[in-house]
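Input for the complex:
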Amino acid sequence: MDHNLNPTELVLRPQRALDGEDMIRLFKVKEKQRELAENANGGAPVKKQSAGELRLHKDICELNLPKSCTITFPNGKDDLMNFEVSIRPDDGYYLGGTFLFSFQVSPIYPHEAPKVKCKTKVYHPNIDLEGNVCLNILREDWKPVLNINTIIYGLYHLFTEPNYEDPLNHDAAAVLRDNPKIFETNVRRAMAGGYVGQNFFPRCM
Amino acid sequence: MTNSTVQPSRSRDLDKLLLRPGNLVGPTFEPGLGLREDLKEYVKVLVVGAGGLGCELLKDLALSGFRELEVIDMDRIEVSNLNRQFLFRLEDVGKPKAEVAAKRVMERVSGVNIVPHFGRIEDKELDFYSKFSIIALGLDSIEARSYINAVACSFLEYDSDDNPQEETVKPMVDGGTEGFKGHARVIMPGTTPCFECTIWLFPPQVKFPLCTLAETPRTAAHCIEYAHLIKWDEVHSGKAFDPDDPEHMKWVYNEAVKRAELFGIPGVTYSLTQGVVKNIIPAIASTNAIISAACTLETLKIASGCSKTLSNYLTLPVKPRNFDGLRELCVAFLKYNGAEGLHTKVTEFVKDKDCLVCGPGVLVELETSVTLEKFISLLEEHPKLQLLKASISHRGKNLYMQAPPVLEEMTRSNLSLALFDLMGKISKDVVHATGTIIESDKKTSCLRKLLVVFKGADGVADMDTAGGA
Ligand SMILES: [Zn+2]
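Predicted:
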């Protein structure tokens, strides 16, 4: 900030509307000020808070999660844009397991949906072995009126109601469709830590 | 050509605007040679982006009497740019766009001074942006526009009646093109809507369901997105895909070709791959030229007052298409047999008075001794706010979070500290508060921008905005 200027130059000019007016006089004044201020301290570097960060702040404050879901911020309290959510389904095939999801939120959130990955390797028709998740509101059905809470509920429902019609893990989907009993056995085996077919699943119970 | 014959012809058209009075000029417009000279000397324009639109903008601004230009771009020149980014030659491939663009325009337009910056817009200090009179945007990403908009709006201050203080207004002229469509707009923070007020104008990116990509691909784009979103992770576990790395792009292209062959889908090309992955529609040189001309004229009008500025959004698509509320003009531009004509349409949008980026915010005056806890309770009583249980953030730092419990715990110790100290002893700054308001017995969550001023902290803070902070 500079403290060398005489501010009267600015104050004495009459107030003008900004639309359709020449700003050159203003630029002249500013340019002269700037030359004067050149030697003054430029001020501390400031990180610009994106509109996405602000909106996310609101989303995080109004989270209303079921007991089975918890949120953590691995980079500390000032990085809300990257967080993790763990889900412990209290019903269905996945009862007793704990599944960790990472969220990456864009600076233009909510214009764009967060990027969500499942960090726990899971035997699931709608989650592939790399952690990609097929959930409509994360992709084709995302709308800016939705929020983080909606996404977490959506993820929770994937565990209580896995859906063989939107398969990302083709084999798991086929087993769920054709033989739910075997599917259940496979899920239990994977969650306890073991092989389903060629794939090893670390324990997550 | 000698210099003496170049000079008069170069400003001939400009002089018709700057040397003569007119009916559409601003009320304080003073035509004359002095104005032309002032444009050269006092108006600094930053061009953001040195791609298709940026090249045009630099050339147009240089030829329109602006002498002090700077340009910033993080990209290097690729062969595929050469058809429309006309400042670049084959031997420039691999060099930074900003540097080559600046050099070429300076070679061709005598007297103009262009400072190139090869790097990311986020890596420049706010101070860098404060020195420009006008910022012209030639970008292809929403993120970058949103960032520059936030920077420009951060200089804005309002007077006690919530009118923008003109010396803090950083005008922006934003151009954008996609194929035959384009827009030019003027953003006067505080007066016109800012980029964030109307972000809904940008149609959301098309995102295919992942399971479609994995199971039932039907189009070339499906195959490309499969390679980009699913196959990449499968093969490169943990390594992030970088859309600006040509090796990564080639890998995705090759995988997409394999996928397309497997399903018998035609149409995967390298340029389509780039387009799908980076979400860009192939640029057309003439669209860039038209949009750049419109943006340059607006820049000249803002600076000189030689005519009323565009109010505030001009579009030119080839096909009529309806976004929410945006009546686009219909241009039969280049149909199969060539040009049939060109129409442009101007739409005036209004700003969102509660915009978190360009809005004035609610003034809260405090003593320097007020603790964060006391501040939060003051917000409950504040007549314009009545914000209950507020969580507070300042410049990206969360000072106090009411929820979730993990953040509440991490920020609780701040409650007993003085807000003035927590904000780094700045006499006046913006903070954001999320809390609950009760409207006709209904609780709603609400995020507000607050302008906190500490009484008696620093006498000069109000006047030195133009110097940059
Ligand atoms: Zn705004």
